[in-house]
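Take one protein record:
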Amino acid sequence: MSPTRRTPAASRVVMTEIVLPADTNNYGTIFGGRLLALADKCAAVAAIRHCRQPVVTASFDRVDFLRPVKSRYFVILTGEVTATFRTSMEIQVTVEAEHPERGERETTCLARITMVAIDEHGRPVTVPPLECDTEDERRRAERAAERRRQRLERRDLEAF
C-alpha cells in the first residue's frame, strides 16, 4: 500500500492501556469519562494520520457502553476513519477489554466521533478524500454520510 493512499487501513490506530484503580469508580470498573477520553485520543490519532493536520473534536455521534471494564484489565482501542467530508472525518472506535492473565477479550464500547481538521489559526481546512477499497468500507462511508446529514439537520432544528 502506498503511504500516500488515504484508506481506512492507513488511518488505523491501536492503543492499549491498563485500567488502574485511579481510573475506576466505587464498583471497581473504569469511569465512562475515562473511556471517552481514551476514545477521543484514539480518534484524534486516526484523523491526524488521515489528513496530516491538527484536528479537534466536533462531536461524539454515538457511544455505546456494552460491558464494564474491571480494574487491572487492559483496554484495547482500535480506531479508523470511516468517512470524510469537506473538513471533517468520522472515526469509528472499538474498545475491547482483555483479561490480563487469560488474554480473553470482549468488546466493551463502540463510539463514532467526528473530528475537524484545522489550520494554525484554528480554522477548518479541507481534508483528503477517503479511498474505500472494499464494499464494506463503501457501505460504512455511505452510512456515515447519512448520519452526518441527520446530525446537521438536527443541529439546524435544535437550539442549545
